[in-house]
Specification:
This protein is an all-alpha fold. It has helices spanning about 1-5, 15-30, 35-60, 85-110, 115-125, 140-160, 165-200, 205, 210-230, 245-260, 275-295. It has one domain (about 1-295). α7 (about 165-200) packs antiparallel against α9 and α10 (about 245-260) runs antiparallel to α11 (about 275-295). The longest helix has about 30 residues, at about 165-200. The N and C termini lie far apart (about 40 Å).
Length: about 300
Amino acid sequence: MKYFLATRPQIVSASLVPFTVGAFLGMKDGYFSWILYILGAISLMFIHLGSNSANDYFDYKHGIDRPGTFGSSGSRLLINGKITLKAEKYVMIGCFVIAVSFGIAVVLLSTPYILIFGLAGIAGGYFYTADPVNLKYHGLSVPAIFVIYGLLITTGGYYLMTRTVSYDALILSMMIGFPVTNIVLSNEIRDSANDRQVGIKSMTILFGDVAGTWLYVVMFAFQFILLFYMILIQKISLLGLISLLSIPFYSMIIVKLFSKSYGKIDGKAIMNIDISSSNAMLIFGIGLIIGLISRI
């Protein structure tokens, strides 16, 4: 059980929701296969789980996560000594092997061009913290997550169904990409004091916690601006307004982030802020999906 928890499965919605949005947009446009959706979702899920394990593995190996730090919410197995670094490595490899196995099935049943999305996802997830790229350590975590978990996964889900990419798919990929990216941004704001000690150049280290929190607010605003736009042009039904149920949760998160940014509370007080952001994203995403499929 602990090896499963080491993959941080509680935040896998951050990849499955964007994929589902893209795939169901394909359904709306008249192209859909449940077999491809299920196989693609399983492959993507294990890419995400393997990426989580890789993130924890290299963060611990590089001394970013260590006893006394927050680690990754929902896991913290390495820093608590409940799993070895070697075991985490094998969990990571196992997840990627399973992902590739299901990915091969997807390719055989669809098109070899879908490999571009899958391989890009694996590379992005692995090199997020792995040498020699270390995207996370060079201030690139926010743009990297937006591209991978927003643009890449959503348009990938759409492409898997339709063999093309559309304007609507790009808009939806940005719409869901903003709240997914905010999961990572909230984590950076929480960890800024520790990251500064070990020399990581995260976006919040480069520009400060206050700027990071305002960026969180801007992305939060844009996800709803795009939602209203898609409703206005009748690409999403009024049921998409269910996504507004996430606003109270986002409001509480933003208050906590500003409190931390202005020194009123420390990182420990918002230890699980990334999980809170993930849950808010899930509520928003479910509303988006309902609004999307109700147009079919």
